[in-house]
Amino acid sequence: DKDRSSALLARDIGADVLLLLTDVPGIYRGFSTESAVLMPRVDAAELPALGLDAGSMGPKAEAAARFAAAGGIAVIGRMEDAAALLAGRAGTRVTSAP
């Protein structure tokens, strides 16, 4: 899977940040419901409880969680927002509490 491979490569080269680029602004709590809310920040441990679809955001969230657990920061968001994702102004930032 491309997301898992990206996380492994980023970890192996010692990257501090992993950008997982997609066509949506980030991870939504309640995705595809009227009450959907973009999550600007989430702890990796919270991701399984969100029930993200394995055919959609699930693999990105899993890769982000693995990278964060290894000490990095992963950000998920739209390709056109790459600079803002890196700067922390867009997307969903996935971290792992020590």
Element order, helices and strands? HEEEEHEHE
**Helix count?**
3
**Biggest sheet, in brief?**
4 strands, mixed
Query: What value does the Rg take, in angstroms?
Result: 12 Å
> What is the percentage of strand-forming residues?
15-25%
Q: Provide the structure class.
A: alpha/beta
Main attributes?
globular; 4-stranded mixed beta sheet; 98 residues; two-stranded antiparallel sheet; alpha/beta; 3 helices; 23% strand
Entry summary:
The chain has helices at 2-12, 58-69, 82-87, and strands spanning 17-22, 28-29, 37-38, 41-43, 73-78, 92-95. It has 98 residues and is α/β, with parallel strands linked by helices. The strands form two sheets. A four-stranded mixed β-sheet has the order 1-5-6-4. A two-stranded antiparallel sheet has the order 2-3.
Topology:
Blueprint: H1 2-12, E1 17-22, E2 28-29, E3 37-38, E4 41-43, H2 58-69, E5 73-78, H3 82-87, E6 92-95
Parallel strand pairs: 1-5, 4-6
Antiparallel strand pairs: 2-3, 5-6
Describe this structure in words.
With 98 residues, this protein is an alpha/beta fold. Helix content is 30%, strand content 23%. The protein has helices at 2-12, 58-69, 82-87; strands spanning 17-22, 28-29, 37-38, 41-43, 73-78, 92-95. The strands form 2 sheets. The protein has a 4-stranded mixed sheet with strand order 1-5-6-4. Helix 1 (2-12) packs parallel to helix 2 (58-69). The longest helix has 12 residues, at 58-69. The radius of gyration is 12 Å and the shape is globular. The mean pLDDT is 93.
